[in-house]
Amino acid sequence: MKKGFLSLILHAHLPFVRHPEYESFFEEIWLFEAITECYVPLIRSLERLQQDRVNYRLTLSLSPPLILMLSDPLLQSRYLNYINNLLELAEKEIIRTSNTPEYQKLARLYRRLYLDTLDIFANQYDCNLLTAFQKFHAAGNLELITCAATHGFLPLLNKSDAAVRNQINTGIETFTSHIGFPPTGFWLPECGYYPGLEKHLENAGINYFFVDSHGIDNASVTPRNSVYAPLDCGNHVMAFARDPESSRQVWSSHDGYPGDYDYREYYSDIGFDLEMDYIAPYILDEHIRINTGIKYHRVTGGDLPKEIYQPRQAIDKAQLHAQDFINKRQQQIDRLSINMDRPPHIVSPYDAELFGHWWFEGPQWLEWVLRFADKNSNGIRTISCADYLKQVTVHQVATPSASTWGDQGYSSFWINETNDWIYPLLHKAGADMEKLATTFKGVKANPLQERALNQAVRSLLLAQASDWPFIMKTGTTVEYATKRITDHLARFNYLRDSIRNNAINERYLSALEILDDAFPAADFRNFHTTKQDPK
Amino acid sequence: MKLWQSRYNPQCKISQQGLLDISEEITQSYTPHDTHHRPELVLMPVDPVNLYAYWNLKDSDTENIIEHVDKQLALRIYSLPNLGNDPAAIKLSFDIKVEDLQNQQQVHLPLAAAAYSAVIGEINADDSFSPLVASDTIHVPRKNPIPEDTLNNPEHVVLSETIQKEALFMEHFLQENHAVENNENTTSVSPVQEDHFVGEENSQNHWPETIILKNYNNYGYDLKVYKHESTPATNPVLSQSELAKLTGNTDTQANSSKPDTNKTNSKHISGLGRLS
Question: What value of ipTM does the predicted structure carry?
Answer without folding.
Answer: 0.94
